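2 proteins. here.
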Amino acid sequence: MTSYARTRRLHARVPLLIASVVLSMTAWAQVPVIEFEALTPTTLTLPDGAEANVQYRLTNRSLRPRTWTMMPIPGISVLAGAGLCPQPSTLAPLASCVLSLRLVGSQMGSGVHGGPIVCWEQFACARPSAADLLAITVVASPRALITATPAVVSFAAGGTATVSIANDAASTVTAQALTVDVPPGSTIDVDLGTCVDPLPPAASCELHLGAIDPQPTAILVIAGSNTVETSIEVTVTDTLFTDGFEGIAED
């Protein structure tokens, strides 16, 4: 083979070698330093009164240790424990840990779309692939429709009154954890009576009110952990003697 022929073959190989090197460098550049692998679904519809967990496996694909921290997201906290990624977290080369996220619907507004993002230097960050980004939509939880009867209550000091709380038949959920909010300054006593138990749709319960001293009119608000609010107007009058007449204050 002549020198000219050998030179032509060498020149023909040079572009191929350059292309091979460029492809190799491009492939290396596309390997993330911190790699995400979704272990749970990342697209969720979450009621505003509910919580959920999302997990990713994070792997350090670089050749040196990386110490990283997740950027904060409202309503999402990082769980700690064996095998989980603490904050901050350090991963040796090729080491992995599980990033376990606790989602609280009531703290997330309308939801979260994007992330999580972890950073190990000021401008060095990583996130999941587009298919595995968080896509959390928060929706309103169904609420029990409760009513109070009577809505206006009056009884004498030293006596009691009974109020019936009903969960409307149109409700789709059982009313939970009923409470009565008495305004500051009022000394009206509340006994939840049978209302300490969950109240299914179309059911009712009774609570009892009492007071030792006369009280000006007060608005008591009644609600459960998953109900609308209802209220009653309560007035405690002067004490009645056993003969039914009101006491007369002495001068």
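next one coming up
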Amino acid sequence: MYLVLMIIVTMCFIFIDFKRLSNSFRDIFSNRKYIKNLENTNMPEEFIMLYQDIEKDCNAQLKKLRKRLIIIITITVILIIAIIFVIPLISNTTISNGRISYHYQSGISNDISEIIVFLIVIVGIFFYTINNIKYKKIYKDNFVRSFIHYLNPNLEYKPEGDIRIEELYEKAKFDNKFFNSFYEDDCISGFIDKNINIKLCDISIERDGGKHRKIIKRGLFTYIESSAKLPEELIINTHNINSGNDDKVELDNEEFETYYNIYCCSKILAYQVLTHDVMDELLRFYKELNVDFEIVLRGNKIYIMFHTGKMFEPKIFSTKNNIQILWAYYNVTNFIINFITKINKELQNLNI
């Protein structure tokens, strides 16, 4: 029974990215929700052609790595099965009066077989990890980087992340929840309209909760330095996010308030910033993707946390929906740029 459980655990290690093992199974696939929402939307022909061109250039390398990963998994499973079942069975086969008899009794001691299986697991995980990292690097260096440049040529992409992101996240003070671990990768940075400094980063935040770690947040964190300064703090949250703020503002827009909560000490300022153009952009985004997020505007800084789950990661063994995944990521990033551009425009119009 112990060895059977070890096989199951081995498969979990092999099929799931190791960094995600500490997170809930549900969260790993949370971004399927908004990817599915975009299945019926029309992708621009230019977007499709760009994907096909990149795929054509990288297909040979990626196909080779996928094949290698499948071989590693197959060999690992065969060796484990051989150690546990086949070798003991063969070693205890007897022939009597022309009849073959099988007496299943371990030909290898349990302790030794467990050690061998453990070593096979370690070696399998080691080689799988190396090739998995290579696959993701090729994918990100080619697909993700190209589509970020397609979105805005002024934006740069770094797969390894940015060490300043944790400090910027803490300054946002979304809910002041304590956390133990902060992970970041896939950082996008640059300028929009020459005067808006922007950073986007895929983050995962965890907190110790007894025997297990609890995910506090995972998704796309965005930091923006605007050219205009807001005199009062303004918070925009989707309904599923609790900000803990008592300064709720009613905007006399029933449809908008169906999806969003607004918090600000000044109702007049909220009306001035959240024009029909800005609210329409927020409504369009939520209806299309149904992604929960929270926005904090403080001074000339804007902080946004999108609860998207893990982003910018490829599907390795089933690649048919990779273009849909990139299309979803493109829409989230494109919304950020459009929203920030519109907000900055309204702030400048206020002469703040």
